[in-house]
Amino acid sequence: MTSTNSSRPPRTVLVTVVLALVVTIAALVTVFLLRSRQENSPSANAEGEAPDAPSVSGSSPAGDCPESRCVVLVSVDVDGSTVELLADQDGRSGRVRVDWGTDTATVLESTIATMGAKVGGDSLRCVEGAISVCLVRGSLEDGTVGEVVVARGGTWRPADRPYFSNAGTIALDDVSGDEVPEVVVVRHDCAVSDPEASCKVAPVVAAVYEVGGAELGCTGHYTSPSDIRGWPDVRVSEGELRPCP
């Protein structure tokens, strides 16, 4: 009769132990190689982590226009940041870049650029206040279009709607006196069905909107935009407002 030695482990157990040791040694070698490669990489910081990329909102890299043809048309210092209007050499593809003076820049895509508006060196106007606001204006074949970006809680964001002036004038003014500028849009008082020639010579009104887009009212009629106080940066008092025609 053949006796069995209970102190000797079965062959399958020995094979399993050997395989486990091989796997463990291979894992340790892999970790060592990866750590050495990471520490020698020029893009890694002292802790072996890749440096943070600049924070950018919008679909374009900070400061880039299509095909890298972007130039700074004008810049304004607002609330400790620099607000810049960028576009290509033809004044198209406009956008707003906000630079906080650090490695972080925010690029806001332009609604009026998608409408075909052309911008220039006089297209950016900013007003500091309890809520700071920047207005971007651009020219279309039949008038002027504008949009606003608003600083709330240290973050600049575009407002929800663009504005159109068939009289060529859009401005910012603190009409209500609450240190938050409103948008003033000068337009000819004519119906959509009126002939274009008669609309161009019709009296104008200045329509006033909150930065969120709500209409506050309109002034009375003026013969031309240049008759409004402060033109082209028109000034309107709250007492002038009435329901818009």
What would you say this structure looks like, in words?
This protein is α+β, with helices and mostly antiparallel strands. The protein has 3 helices and 13 strands. The strands form 3 sheets. Strands 5, 6, 7, 8 and 9 form a 5-stranded antiparallel β-sheet that branches. Strands 1-2-3-4 form a 4-stranded antiparallel β-sheet, with no helix packed on it. The N and C termini lie far apart (115 Å). The model is unreliable at 1-64 (pLDDT under 50).
Beta-strand percent range: 25-35%
The low-confidence parts are 1-64
Oligomer state of the chains in this structure: single chain
Helix percent band: 10-25%
Summing up helix and strand content along with how strands pair, one would put the structural category as: alpha+beta
Q: What series of H and E elements makes up the topology?
A: HEEEEHEEEEEEEHEE
Span of the ends, CA to CA:
115 Å
Number of helices: 3
